[in-house]
């Protein structure tokens, strides 16, 4: 059999099927062993190919596209450590349930574990951090093997997408010579089933009518119920859960990534300052529910986590359409495996509208008071990390995407970004909460969602500086708001801050970098913010490419500011709850 | 039992033992879960702690220290994707046999797979890319568990170091609160066996007298033997193998990383231009041996690899003290598991000195002619990648370390860096040959070996720009010679170069970056080379910190220059072998 023909037909069949399976983007990192796949993918008339030299950033970039498009994105790299660089993004995709199709080129069997160059053991390279691993058969052009390439491809895309979504890994052994035959007119023509080899349909998990009725009965038996929504992306969920809340008069504690903090859905029942007021002991006591229904991943708020854990004698339903076990506190009493929107819709018919909103009103009062007092952050003239998020909520245009870094930005967002109807999409990498790959994930998202604002700290920015190359090479508009407190700001809030001896060296870790230089290297626009007027001004300008706006803050002052604000709000809450106001 | 006391005593016992087991350096990446280990390590009076925010670069930095010091180096990071960032360096360490002790902090058992923040499955995280994995017991302060911590530590260091050396992974579950008790005078005092809990001695593999005699007999039976030395770091090997060559009058084909190209050992039998002359068909025919003894990893030279494969009917001994299978050509007839220096010494007594050097003389003549003609590269005034290595061989100070990037630099070094007595140590990451982590590996090596010169291409430099932070933060002197051909130069030498359609996009991948900006950000000195005089001049200046010397070249011109030179040398060789000169 002709080697080049086998190579070409097998790969072209796979690539055809990739597009037919819903993949639109492929992120390719250059390399030699991956040559045939890269060249064939590039020939495909519909696939968008993004070239990214650094595989670590490349995989996060793909993660960002997949998050924003809710489609599986394919990534391709050569053999060896190149593939190992994908690991961080794969681990993140696995936990945050983002569909990725990871394609690694490999030496053929006879060149493995024999000292051949650029060869590492790639079998099950990512362990159980992928949903599915396939060691692909070497390319062959028989009817049987073309069917094999196509079915594996269709299965890979469907597996990546099916709940819980996640990464799959296909390892391709390629023998030299590696050049496919591209001057064929029929490269992507499929001899059988031209529309796609096998259409894979995946249903969503629903409760039976009896289960739904039982759950509705359970829920309505309690008078002090509350809903907690962590990070969640299920279609139609915002409308469904707010209907449920309205009917039952339940407060919804909405994490920034629940997509409930901003949008056209009913915001009446959204509670968005619990992270602040649940630091208050009296609030924790008085607001204690007798029922909790939780959706989505764990919320970012530590005070909420503690609150949930203190409700150890309370019935706690955890709903998860992805079949996980999201209960670090070991406090759930019911684990409900059902697609979240379906669940709301299936129990709604069994629930009668409640008129008594007494319990919700208590939450609402505390929430309004807290919002009011947190707004005092805006009175400061100093450059403050907290005020920044309050300003963003005010200034960002409708429909914008706000991507936030881990550590402090997501927490400050949680505190200072309150419900609005602007439909601002909030994104972050909250699967494993790493500071790695954030720039690239945001840039990937920015290829689909515009305008996109990325707010992150200096260590997070530093960790993925290489990611900026994509902005340069593809002119991706992104407005990066860099909060530079010269080090790891979050550690100032942790117990190690009380041990000053080696704190700066081990945890503060100031880098003392002037990022303006690197922004310039990537052809970006750079601006250092001096005051809030300038900040508001810079936000109103459109950006056509890479734009970095830097705000320098001070870690100690930031800590003091947060503590003072929380203390003063807490005082007000105590007064309210004691009936003094 | 007191939590803090358990945490402190257990970790301090481990850290004490770490130092007693020969570890001198620990590279720590900041994080929360790793707090107790980081704080205790930092208290140790003897351990050198290097802080590195980017875990990918951190692990490569540790790899560099371990390579230069030949001691195990420990690395520590927090839980989650941080640990996944270590993977590329671990894969490299595993194949290039470099001892690393990888310590990852993890959530305790009850916080795993339950949606807790920053938690990924870290059990066997690196698969079979580490030699040993231990899920550590949670900290306890019983006599038993202190012994456990100490023995696991001693075993880890010894396992990492024992041939084949490599990485080991210890995963530490830590429960909150994470702060150890550091105000103890007896922190590192060991109650039992204060000198170290268990001294682990590892012997080297040697042949029995009978095996050695048999091998000596086999070898001496052949008249046209040759030795091939790939990358190897075994102590005393250069002296031992040159003695063997001298006694038997065997040519030694010495890879740049064999450490035979520069040093005080006898250079008479060193053949250093085979990559060039083995491209000549006549040379391949006339120089065909009847016996090959190969030491070390596979050499970088592709012409040599082809030559070895063409010698399919020749007895080929492969000697490996690490027990691997370094034979991608499937052509070895004898696999000999024996420490390489030992092997030479054990067969020498059974070998009589030969007087006939006829076969070696043929090699020598071709080698000298090739050297002579390759030197013509120096006649060009243009900035040339080839000439650069010739200039380096001439100009570098005695005892310097030359670290080379993968792809073109190692190949040009192979072609243009010929035997000298300067004792220049040549280093590279030739386990998996990745372009990742090269800057950091070189910087790690530079903490032990000075002066250090790093020569690398622009894609390799770009891939690990973050590594430069170590130079800034620790004032590590390093002279980086950046060959900027704006893209992947090596691809011009591969078959895909004949398919111009998407070549630039998929393989050329120009980044169009002005690296001066980023060098400035890291506080480095930058110089763009205009001519060779300036280059010679810049090499004579000492460097006290980061210094980047950039040479811009052109990929097409470089390809043409190499081809012309190889063609003209090949012509001369043909003439020589035809008896015309």
From TrEMBL, chains A, B:
Keyword GTP-binding: no
Cofactor(s) in the UniProt record: thiamine diphosphate; Mg(2+); Mn(2+)
CDD domains: TPP_PYR_MenD (cd07037), TPP_SHCHC_synthase (cd02009)
Pfam family, one: TPP_enzyme_N
Entry's EC annotation: 2.2.1.9
Catalytic activity: isochorismate + 2-oxoglutarate + H(+) = 5-enolpyruvoyl-6-hydroxy-2-succinyl-cyclohex-3-ene-1-carboxylate + CO2
InterPro entries according to UniProt: DHS-like_NAD/FAD-binding_dom (IPR029035), MenaQ_synth_MenD (IPR004433), MenD_middle (IPR032264), THDP-binding (IPR029061), Thiamin_PyroP_enz_TPP-bd_dom (IPR012001), TPP_enzyme_TPP-bd (IPR011766)
EC class: transferase
Family matches, as SUPFAM superfamilies: DHS-like NAD/FAD-binding domain, Thiamin diphosphate-binding fold (THDP-binding)
Cofactor note: Binds 1 thiamine pyrophosphate per subunit.
GO molecular function: 2-succinyl-5-enolpyruvyl-6-hydroxy-3-cyclohexene-1-carboxylic-acid synthase activity
Thiamine pyrophosphate enzyme N-terminal TPP-binding domain: residues covered: 13-124
Keywords, sorted A to Z: Magnesium, Manganese, Menaquinone biosynthesis, Metal-binding, Thiamine pyrophosphate, Transferase
Domain Thiamine pyrophosphate enzyme TPP-binding span(s) in chain numbering: 437-539
Keyword Transmembrane: no
Domain Menaquinone biosynthesis protein MenD middle as annotated: residue spans: 220-404
Biological role stated in the UniProt entry: Catalyzes the thiamine diphosphate-dependent decarboxylation of 2-oxoglutarate and the subsequent addition of the resulting succinic semialdehyde-thiamine pyrophosphate anion to isochorismate to yield 2-succinyl-5-enolpyruvyl-6-hydroxy-3-cyclohexene-1-carboxylate (SEPHCHC).
HAMAP family attached to this UniProt entry: MenD
Entry's family note: Belongs to the TPP enzyme family. MenD subfamily.
Quaternary structure annotation from Swiss-Prot or TrEMBL: Homodimer.
Protein name: 2-succinyl-5-enolpyruvyl-6-hydroxy-3-cyclohexene-1-carboxylate synthase
